[in-house]
Amino acid sequence: xEQDRFVLLAARSFASANSSAAAGGLWPKCAAVGLVAxxxxxxxxxxxxxxxxxxxxxxxVMPLRREQRLISVRPVECADSSKYRSRxxxxxxxIEPSASIRKRLFDIAVAGxxxxxxxxxxxxxxxxxxxxxxxxxxxFQYRYGYRNRFFKIYKFRTMRTDDCDARGVKQTxxxxxxxxxxxxxxxxxxxxxxxxxxxxxxxxxSLVGPRPHVPGMLAADLPYEVLVPYYFQRHTARPGITxxxxxxxxxxxxxxxxxxxxxxDYDLDYIEKWSLRMDIMIIARTIRRxxxxxxxx
Length: 297
Prior knowledge:
Elements: H1 2-24, H2 27-60, E1 73-75, E2 84-86, H3 90-93, H4 101-117, H5 119-132, E3 138-144, E4 150-156, H6 181-189, H7 196-202, E5 206-208, E6 218-219, E7 222-223, H8 224-227, E8 240-242, H9 244-247, H10 257-273, H11 276-292
Parallel strand pairs: 5-8
Antiparallel strand pairs: 1-2, 3-4, 6-7
Helix pairs in contact: 1-2, 4-7
């Protein structure tokens, strides 16, 4: 429309110029000048029309790639299911376990009371270990802690000192020949974990959280972080004496890949959904499942 308007105006001006030029005898010159001006008008009009058309097309173009949205999804492979569950954001879940003052005060109070209450039992276990096998009473080992920091974990020694794996890469299996007679009882009732209450008071551990692993721990004959790419996310919380994975049946060997993956998924579920009520529930289930029933080995 704009192009036709420009051409019409040019034609009218050209016609008026022709009438005046015919009277003065200047027709050939005016005709040449008019043709040149008309062609220039046409070129400018075409250029403006193309520019407007290109801009309109750009505004209406559908982008090939939509804007990328933050999606946080990880697979949860349990023993009886292979479905996928979406992760809740940590903003929705509230404060993280390691940042909670209430959780820290709860850990100190319960761990201190438990050490006082279990002191006679701890002395009896220490004497039994010392009498039945040569070597120290306690076993020390460096494990992954909060934010991938190493810390020294305390346990009652349950294996022979001449045939133990100091690094802890070789996992214990049922009927392991390295375990001492008193060690079998301690491992079955999980009493070998009681000295970790000292780690809780020191701040290295919590009563409830992901179980601390040794660096280089294998799962399905692979480094754990290779089998589970999001493995180190579990270290955003203090490790615990017990955890959601342990009371849910994911304890023991990590030779089976599905169970090894499920263990990490349970750890991350705990970090996202943590509450003091959940901690109390997990502790109660641990006492019933581990200390009373004796599911360890």
